[in-house]
Design a protein that fits this description.
This is NADPH--hemoprotein reductase. It comes from Stenotrophomonas lacuserhaii. InterPro entries: FAD-bd_FR_type, Flavdoxin-like, Flavodoxin/NO_synth, Flavoprot_Pyr_Nucl_cyt_Rdtase, Flavoprotein-like_sf, FNR_nucleotide-bd, OxRdtase_FAD/NAD-bd, Riboflavin_synthase-like_b-brl. One of its GO terms (molecular function) is FMN binding. This protein has 537 residues and is α/β, with parallel strands linked by helices. The chain has 4 domains: 60 residues; 151 residues, 3-Layer(aba) Sandwich (Rossmann fold), CATH 3.40.50; 149 residues, Elongation Factor Tu (Ef-tu), domain 3 (Beta Barrel); 140 residues, Rossmann fold. Strands 1, 2, 3, 4, 5 and 6 form a 6-stranded parallel sheet that branches. α1 runs antiparallel to α2 and α15 packs across α17. It is globular and about 65 Å long. It starts with 6 loop residues before the first helix and ends with a strand. 35% of the residues are buried.
Length: 537
């Protein structure tokens, strides 16, 4: 128990002291002492007023100090709301799996079925994820009826909410993933901000679910370091080239990689288009695996039943903590593969190779990230890379006759570059690129190529801004706002907008500028027409 007196007790003591003083003064007045005899009635009146006023002030102070306070919560620490709508139970299973991944990364999560969702719960949430299945001919699950009746007919203000949608469906039906898109549309119309574009899953497609899992990792914690829910069927590729593009930069090292499938390998006849994604299977550095083997007194050249050596298996696996006395078979049974990493493809098919642009990331402990560390520092040029291509139709290009505005920062130029290469091959020259980085001297990735493209007439406008170089505009969103008139003009002429780069900072800031310039309805019309597409991470 604390011996410190409460504020209420202290306030009451002050009130009692004030009343004692007033009583003493009134007693002196009654006995005719001091100079108060000259105006006893007036003095008594003012004394009473002062006493009452003082007591009232003390009461107000006491109330203010002891009033109930609404606890303030850091939005980043508020639980993530995870809502599922399921007809067969699959969406509910994915919701629990998603919640487990987020909790395993140290994030708080509250899971609700959609009929439990109400306006108060949405108002109390900063971030929300929706996993929604579609049944029949574009219908929502049966248990979503209360939500449809109560909320989707209402007009809540959701400007505080950031959300993501996983839409489950079957592409053989006409209204593919309809309820998921209906949810996305409703959230946008009421001011909510999309964390990323709706992820469509066709018949439990493993690649789409891996992409969803990758997006969960962007919400914080270390969810991206957890094993993939479904294994990736990689093909064997060769790393042809690796070049460090920004030596001397104040930012992390950025590397340009060029890869080709190995001849005769399964899936070597590959195809992709601008906007598609490369899924890479990372490996531990050999020294890390060797140190683990020595620590646990195991031989890396031990041959396993599948023909691999133990070291080769471990290089692609999460390195477990081995208890004393554990045998090799038990160890092998518990091994989990390293999670894949996703990168925007920076080249078009006619370029002859898949090109990637990535920044080496560091973990909280200062060690390189699983994927970027492997690709930037460890993987030998000329050596094999586990890689798989994944279609990403939400970021595919638009009709070449339509003007195109491309906006990105940092390594986000990768996905935009692929589109520019495709557009140039198609003879589409009405392209406007806005790109942001730190310093022009070190961080203008593919700068010479872009300037030459502008000189050839394939880039109608090139706006590059660099935050560390001074100037009127520090960030790409600042330049976009300064060009509000041009933005409106291009959109009125039918332009589409592609955004590629940082989920934190750039993408929401650009989204806010687009809404400010075009209005909420104008932005929504672009989204619904497929003229506003994003690849953010």
């Amino acid at each position: 128990m604390s011996l410190r007196p409460s504020r209420a007790l202290f306030g009451n003591l002050l009130v009692m002291l004030a009343l004692v003083i007033v009583a003493w003064l009134l007693l002196r007045l009654h006995l005719g002492e001091s100079g108060w005899e000259l105006a006893p009635r007036r003095a008594a009146l003012w004394t009473a007023i002062a006493a009452v006023g003082g007591y009232g002030a003390l009461c107000a102070l006491l109330w203010w100090q002891t009033r109930p306070r609404r606890e303030r919560t850091d939005p980043a620490q508020r639980p993530i709301l995870l809502v599922w709508a399921s007809q067969t139970g699959f969406a509910a299973q994915l919701a629990e799996r998603s919640a487990d991944a987020l909790r395993g990364a140290g994030l708080a999560v509250r899971v609700r079925s959609i009929e439990q969702l109400d306006a108060a719960l949405l108002a109390d949430s900063e971030r929300a994820l929706f996993i929604a299945s579609t049944t029949g001919e574009g219908d929502p699950p049966d248990h979503a009826a209360p939500f449809l009746r109560r909320l989707m007919t209402a007009t809540p203000s959701l400007g505080h909410l950031h959300y993501g949608v996983l839409a489950l469906g079957d592409h053989s039906y006409a209204h593919y993933c309809a309820f998921g898109h209906q949810l996305d549309d409703w959230l946008r119309r009421h001011g909510a901000h999309a964390l990323f574009d709706t992820v469509e899953v066709d018949n439990a497609d493993p690649a789409s679910l891996r992409h969803w899992q990758q997006l969960l990792g962007q919400l914080g914690g270390d969810a991206s370091d957890q094993p993939d829910w479904t294994p990736v069927d990689y093909q064997r590729w060769t790393l042809l080239r690796r070049e460090h593009l920004n030596p001397g930069s104040a930012g992390g090292p950025v590397h340009w990689l060029r890869l080709q499938p190995q001849p005769g390998a399964a899936g070597s006849e590959v195809q992709w288009q601008a906007g598609d994604i490369a899924e890479v299977g990372p490996q531990h550095a050999p020294g890390v695996v060797q140190a683990w083997l020595q620590r646990h007194q195991l031989q890396g050249d031990t041959l396993l039943a599948d023909g691999q050596t133990l070291q080769a298996r471990l290089s692609r696996s999460q390195l477990p903590v081995v208890t004393a006395g554990g045998d090799l078979q038990t160890l092998l049974a518990t091994l989990q593969p390293l999670p894949h990493r996703e990168y925007s493809i920076a080249s078009a098919m006619h370029d002859g190779a898949v090109e990637l642009l990535l920044r080496r990331q560091l973990r909280a402990d200062g060690t390189p990230g699983i994927g970027s560390g492997w690709l930037c520092d460890v993987a030998p040029v000329g050596g094999p890379i586990d890689l798989r291509l994944r279609r990403n139709p939400n970021f595919h290009g638009v009709d070449s006759t339509r003007p195109l505005i491309l906006i990105g920062n940092g390594t986000g130029i990768a996905g935009l570059r692929a589109h520019l290469h495709e557009r140039e091959a198609a003879g589409a020259s009405r392209n406007w690129l806005l790109f942001g980085e730190r310093n022009a001297a070190h961080d203008f990735h593919f700068g010479d190529e872009l300037v030459q493209m502008q000189q050839r007439g394939m880039l109608e406008r090139l706006d590059a801004v660099f935050s560390r170089d001074g100037g009127a505009h520090r960030y790409v969103q600042d330049r976009l706002l300064a060009e509000a008139g041009r933005l409106r003009q291009w959109v009125d002429e039918g332009a589409a907008i592609l955004v590629c780069g940082s989920l934190q900072g750039m993408a929401p800031a650009v989204d806010a500028v687009i809404e400010q310039v075009l209005g909420a309805e104008g932005k929504e019309a672009l989204v619904l027409a497929g003229r506003y597409r994003r690849d953010v991470y």
